[in-house]
Amino acid sequence: MLTTSSWLLNLRTERSRTVSAPSVKPFPDRGGALDPQPLAMRFAAGEPAAMQDLYRQHGAFVFSLCMAALRHRQDAEDATQAVFTRAWRSHDTYDITQPTGAWLTGITRRVIADTFARRERDLQAARAGVEEQVREDAPQPTDAVVDRVVVQQSLDALGPPQDEILRLAYAEDLPLKIIAERLGMPLGTVKSHVHRGLARMRKSLEVHSD
Amino acid sequence: MTEQFPPNERSDSAAHLSDHELAMLADPRLAEEEGAAAPPTEDRLTEAQRHLALCAPCREALAATERALNALRDPVNLLEPPAGLWDRIAAEIAETPAAPGPTGASVHQLRPRPTPSRRWVPLAAAAAGVLIGGAAVAGVLGQGSEEEAPAEPPVAAPTVLGDAALEPVAAEDISGQAEMVETEDGLLEITVEVSEAPDPEAGYFEVWLRNEDGSRLQSLGAVTGTESTTFQVPEGLDLSEYPVVDVSHEHFDGDPGHSGTTLAAGPMEPADS
């Protein structure tokens, strides 16, 4: 249980948080080390205050996931709301050895699937009536969207210079040699950062793929 | 997992692929020769491929590495949820009692601020029990509320009418006490003391009188320190409607309503007479 001062400190940290991506670190990549953390235990115990902490920690992740998958702001907000209320209702099924973030990912997948199913029903209903224009952009498979958001978050959590190196190497698709020159590092150092960073990305994906 | 492995051989063909080998298989650029002195990575990769054919876990690990690469090539923006979303979630959660956990935590959640009619929703049955006493006191304190016309104020020395033990209701272990007195002028005053002072940067504590389910709230004022603070109860306030003393955590956000975060609360109990 938090002491008052640490709680107030948390609040302060929370408030000073900016919207810039690197500060969004909803769950630290614990590389599969699943030691139960206090929040997980408080949540499993059904402590209402734990819900807000859970939201603070994972709200941006869940919302980003819903936005990336649903590509519709209102739907994403509704889906995020559904994720956290479902989490609350079913907290007694939460397995405390699982990171809370991974558990929420599972719920988010189901909520996204439900939203797609509802859209499909609406579409069918519309088709039954009038001639309906077909939705053009077929949504990306949810699995791929989950991967992208999990990796993005894990990348932001890496910190420099690894995050920057991975961005340059893959998002920018620069040759490793150019990256080494640009950052003034030996090529071997750049490679070893890529190696370590990729291992972290892979492990965070494994945690969220259950 | 090892970062390095002996060049040119997999010492144990049964050993799983290292992070290093997985990355090189997924991104051939990492396996490019660095110079004449570099070890022959081709051979190592051939060995690794042989292992892969036989080992499902390593195939899965390689697949996950490739998924990581694909995700890195297609970056996505992480977005903060809109400011009001938590309030909406909190409101829905407040109407959805979860099974009480082993801790028997008793926290009150308010509806979110935008909701015009504010209500308290006790989330745990335990909390309701605590409050039952308050109703009885309210009857005492609020006499004159219905049947009788407002009684003439008794003219006497300050009289202690009741007190309240404010029990922690949030995760933070903040408690306090409140005492209600009637002054010589017949005015009601409440003196409140809390165990912790708020951090000014994190907001302030506010004292409220409310009914049991939180559908009625009367703000008394802010508490800034741990020394006792005395508030005057607005004249004409029907105390039978507001039997519970509540200390909330508020932010400097310009919103005069209850934040929904109650730190400590308790019913007014009649003074021993």
Kindly describe this structure.
- The complex is a heterodimer of chains A (210) and B (273).
- With 210 residues, chain A is mainly alpha-helical.
- Chain A has one domain: Rna Polymerase Sigma Factor, Chain: A (Orthogonal Bundle).
- Chain A is built from nine helices and no strands.
- Chain A has helices at 4-16, 38-44, 48-70, 73-89, 100-129, 142-158, 162-171, 176-183, 187-208.
- In chain A, helix 3 (48-70) crosses helix 5 (100-129), helix 7 packs across helix 9 (187-208) and helix 8 (176-183) packs across helix 9.
- Chain A starts with a helix and ends with a helix.
- The relative contact order of chain A is 0.11.
- Residues 1-37 and 132-136 of chain A have low confidence and may be disordered.
- Chain B is α+β, with helices and mostly antiparallel strands and 273 residues long.
- Chain B folds into two domains: 19-73, no CATH class; 89-94 and 107-270, Immunoglobulin-like (Sandwich), CATH 2.60.40.
- Chain B is built from five helices and eleven strands; from the N terminus they run ααααββαβββββββββ.
- In chain B, the strands form two sheets. In chain B, strands 3, 4, 5, 6, 7, 8, 9, 10 and 11 form a nine-stranded antiparallel β-sheet that branches.
- The longest helix of chain B has 18 residues, at 56-73.
- Chain B is rod-shaped.
- The interface between A and B is large, with 75 and 60 residues.
Write out key terms for the chains shown.
heterodimer; A: 210 residues; mainly alpha; Rna Polymerase Sigma Factor, Chain: A; flat; disordered N terminus; B: 273 residues; alpha+beta; Immunoglobulin-like; two-stranded antiparallel sheet; 5 helices; 11 strands
Short description:
The complex is a heterodimer of chains A (210) and B (273). Chain A is mainly α. Chain A has helices at residues 4-16, 38-44, 48-70, 73-89, 100-129, 142-158, 162-171, 176-183, 187-208.
